Amino acid sequence: MTQQIPRRAAVGFVAVGAACAACARYGGPQFPDEGAAGSEKTTTQQDGEVLGKAADVPVGGGKIFEAQKLVVTQPEAGQFKGFSAVCTHQGCVVNEIVDGTINCPCHGSKFKLDGAVDTGPATQPLPAAAVSVNEYGELVTGGAAPPAETTAPETTAPETTAPETTAPDTTAPPGGGGKALTSTAEVPVGGGKILADQEIVVTQPSAGKFMAFSAVCTHQGCIVDQVSGGTINCPCHGSKFKLDGSVSQGPATAPLSARAVKVSGNQISLA
């Protein structure tokens, strides 16, 4: 999803959900700890965290925010897009944006400014992350805020209406809508099921309440491998997450990225 900055309100919006595999620090080829299964989708940030000035993101380029492991691009003037900075090939952190591509230093994967794969070996797009532009012209994590009566920065774009955003636990990655995941009978109450192929974990904290998250641990990008004792467990460094995706036990400090799902009959699918 994209957001354009109104003339009288520099409020932007870009949404998806979320994955992402966070395994390496920005700045050089680094790999996940041995034992990590692949990596995918997305790093979740607390809504409202200021990333920097929207004016610092060039048109036709982007900027990598190392601390948050996010990359924000501006394919066209006033159109901001946010993504996890973790490469979907083996979890390295992308380190540069050059000539219209987001580049990974480890194996040469490149991604377009809309997150799509440009050059392999990566086969999956960068997971999208929700970002906004506030009334001060600052990029912030999370959905768009109501328009404010203030003067927009010079880099304005034609006025447009931003689509509504969903709650954090119903944020779906782009292009995943309607994809069947599993049946309700396969997700136990008070437990969950890990879908390795999709790198998604579906839980049922209470009867009839289904939730879904990225299966990529937010510590260093390993894939969680079991749901037991009411927690979603990562095999690499012992991080555990509650059935609502929040951290139960470190070293992970950020919750699992949420995925939007819907239940039709006895089938659970991406919303």
UniProtKB/TrEMBL annotation:
Signal sequence bounds: 1-24
Required cofactor(s): [2Fe-2S] cluster
Key words of the record: 2Fe-2S, Disulfide bond, Iron, Iron-sulfur, Metal-binding, Signal
Biased composition (Low complexity): 141-173
CDD domains: Rieske
GO cellular component terms, A-Z: membrane
Entry's Gene Ontology molecular function annotations: 2 iron, 2 sulfur cluster binding; metal ion binding; monooxygenase activity; oxidoreductase activity, acting on paired donors, with incorporation or reduction of molecular oxygen
Protein name in UniProt: Cytochrome bc1 complex Rieske iron-sulfur subunit
Organism: Actinophytocola oryzae
